[in-house]
Amino acid sequence: MKISTRLLAASMLVVGLAAGAEAKTLVYCSEGSPENFNPQINTTGTSFDAARPVFNQLVEFEPGTTNVVPGLAESWEVSPDGTEVTFHLRKGVKFHSIKGFTPTRDFNADDVLFSFNRMWKEDSPYHKVSGGAYDYFNDMGMPDLLKSIDKVDDYTVKFTLTRPEAPFLANLAMDFATILSAEYADQMLKAGTPEQIDQVPVGTGPFSFVAYQKDNAIRYKAFPDYWGGAPKIDLVFSITKDATARWAKVQKGECQVMPYPNPADLDAIGKDENVDLMQQPGLNIGYLAFNVTKKPFDDKRVRLAIIHAIDKEAILKDVYLGAGQPAKNFIPPTIWSYNDAIVDYPYDVEKAKDLLKEAGLQDGFSTDIWWMPVQRPYNPNAKRVAEIIQADLEKLNIKANLVSYEWGEYRKRMQQGEHQMGQLGWTGDNGDPDNFFFLLGCDAARDGGQNIAKWCNKDFDDKLKKAKTIFDKAERTKLYEEMQVIAHDEVPVFNIAHSVVFEPVRKEVVGYKVSPLGRHEFAKVDLK
Amino acid sequence: MLGFIVRRVLLVIPTFIAIAFLTFVAIRLVPGDPIEVRTGERGITPERLAEFRHQLGLDQPVWKQFLDYLVQIAHGDLGTSISTHAPVLQEFLTLFPATLELALCAMLFAVVLGIPAGVLAATRRGGFLDYSVMGVALTGFSMPIFWWGLLLILFFSVTLDLTPVSGRIDLLYYFEPVTGFMLIDSLLSDQDGAFLSAVSHLILPTIVLGTIPLATIARMTRSTMLEVLGEDYVRTARAKGLSPFRVVNVHALRNALIPVVTVIGLQTGMLMGGAVLTEYIFSWPGIGTWLIESIQRRDYPVLQGGVLMISGLVILINILVDVLYGVLNPRIRHAR
Prior knowledge:
Chain B: This is Dipeptide transport system permease protein. The complex is a heterodimer. By secondary structure, chain A is of the alpha+beta class.
């Protein structure tokens, strides 16, 4: 009797302990498989999302905003001429332990140097590992910008730049600037398996990596020693490619958060009592560019006529299904320096006809409208947009043919300037206005460059270049506001819309924020 | 018999080379460049594009690339994925068991239901049962997989809450794959409820993938059965006073099944194709999903390797069918 009582008590204790220790797990229904777990070498949002729980950068974006806040660097200072940025690193930051690797030291300057040198220096033993393509590092112009990166002491790193570069801090908050463990890299190199560090990530982030089964699931567990405070949940990415199936899983509670709902499901999602349909204007722009180097689009009156003739409201209603906001500027209103004083051109067919007559084209002409063969957040159905524009232009006797190519080919031809009018768009990387406006700069207007209007306006370009070298935000704001006026007057592109990003989140989830940068972050999230 | 098999196997080599060639050329005819594709909106400078192309050997003439590729396959190397840098063969082997498991279950489902349904329909020719079976079969045959899958999810998973929506097993269970077959691994794992979870995840995808072969097999069984039932030997069996059950299920069925075996074989090959959509809807981590993704990424080595492996499998199944057919019907072996 006594023994059995004791047994009972013991077993109850065990059960109680087990229940207490049972971690809460948040399941995120992600949309695809990551290519790898190192943001230095991949380029897709899906892959960045998968690596983000594990890693930190020197500076980071405050969740839910585009503000840059301290990360692994506690503080930093910029030299008066703007070419030296010194970071003071956080002390006592731990790396994760995984099977086969246990860190022996805390995070320090060596890890920063290793991480950047891998991308930057050809002589880094890791430079060629896993394909050796550092697209973002290169695209953000880092090789030209960096003069040197020096370790001042174990917790101080100095970046010397070739020129003052205002968006630099925002760039370092991007995923490509992730800090990896130099110690782990050394060990893997010695073991002859350097690729391992890109497949089995070790970082300083809120979650440590547990396992990845391709096309199935990624598992992470809360990192108790996280410098920012241990997360309250464990995390699983359940890879679910079909948007309707993702929604079905959220409905059933098989996962709690999902990205990219099917627009057709939005109505039903909004009505579900267990789910919050969170939303935020996306950091993006969908636009139609006029190739200003080609006739008749070299004539501003023709461009204006076309803009007046297109019914933007119809496009938003018909294509974006309400999940978009009409764009009057090239940057979305969530970015600082947005010039709200600009008044968009109204839909006015008579005005359009007058303008064409002035340009001597009252009889119309024939032209092409290129539409993107892919769906993008900023443009859910480019073909439909093209059809609406085509119909609108008919009223001006303009006969527009619809043209498209496979996506890579499409972009290549367009960057070469083969088109007359073409749709494209942009999703911001870091919330800096420069990250959008460079697309209208003269450097990008060269053959093969990303300015597909091929528009080069000296006034605009001077301001763009100047703004980039100033660290004073108020001064930069002024320049960007002026640039928006110029772009409005010269109309190199027809700004269509900024899409609204929707994310269904179950009500038991606490503290989740929709990111304007399109990130999906869970460090501060809890489950009721 | 041996000669027959050898002849069939020898044919495989040129077939393989032809398939490798067709895939190789077809992929390169599709516009789009693996490197361009991976860079999203950003694009890439021509210098770096050239550098990458060189690294991947894409700057060589196509015939040279192809010859190199053949040499490579002959060494048992299917290449390395452009996007993940993992060996193609290794990726295939990790993902293939999932597809095979699903395909086998779907086939089992189709055979177990399809043959009796066909027999039943044939023996009740013109009756209500016949019409119902054939009606259902026709519907199943023309059902778009995508729509059918989502319909089942909405009804059984969301509305009735009977089955899980997608995946292979509840993610709360976690164990290292041993065989890659979830039904077996979940049993080996010793975790309570894991096996049941695996089974419940299999139900809907099995039905969706099995629907078309089920319809095909039922119709085929019915028509060959009808044919056989009219033969003299069946009438003889009946005249001998054998029970109708014995006549149908022993005497007639054995012969009626011969063409059905072929259909089953061919359908198994087809299943690999149908699996692509089913896997996508149910987030089934198999080769279907893998191939779709590699098309989107223009991952040449994965596409080439994947297609080659699948066609190899279909060829293998066809040989098995031929052999089996030869066993069932000796006349085939000697015909030339």
